[in-house]
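Entry 14. Structure prediction run on the chain below.
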Amino acid sequence: MQTYDAGNIIGRAEKELYDTRKFTGKSELDKEDFLTLLVAQLQHQDPLNPMDDKEFTSQLAEFSNLEQLTAINKGVASLSQQTIHQEMVNASNFIGKEVRALGDNLSIREDGSVSQLFYALKSEAQKVYMNIFDKDSNIIRTIQLGSQAAGEHDFQWDGKDWRGNALPEGLYYVALAAEGKDGEAILTQTEVSGLVEGVQYANGQNYLRLSDGRVVAFNFVKEVVKASAGNETEQDAPTEE
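Output returned:
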């Protein structure tokens, strides 16, 4: 909500009212304070030296602008909520379908199988490293993938740590690093895939919850990899902004 500097709208009589309110936890004036001060100013004006018409008109114009801005802010907030709701409805259409989205998380399932990871390199790389972390950000393995051509690749982790021990069921994370022939860093991008089981809202954004517990942001979905039973047509995914 827009606020106003009391020094520009009040005179001597109501200055005390403002000074009193300053120490009650309010450092700025809201709409109600503005109106209260304006009324107080009219009540305490000198009858022999009334408020200048231009000044009074200016203050009323400021109040009108404040009302309009308040209405606009409420309208924007309402529109935002409607957009989020509509996005959630759209995201629910992905339930039961396998999607591919930007992401860096992998899962080891109860049967020991590991979800698949995809990655893209902007240019040819002489060295590619895949660093794998557990949920507490401890690095558990670094895998050297050697030289790689530019373009898209897939990676299938065996679910083992650097000692060769099979790791327990749960979520894990990857960090991909690539170097060119002169040791320069190469831009990389990782993607994950999984079966959508539900939709959830958090931190102002809608997420797709995958069947293995992972979540991906709805606006990070790149494509529907596999349609659900009874619907063989793949759908276009939302475009990342």
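The domain at 98-226 is CATH 2.60.40.4070 (Immunoglobulin-like).
Filed with the rest of this week's runs.
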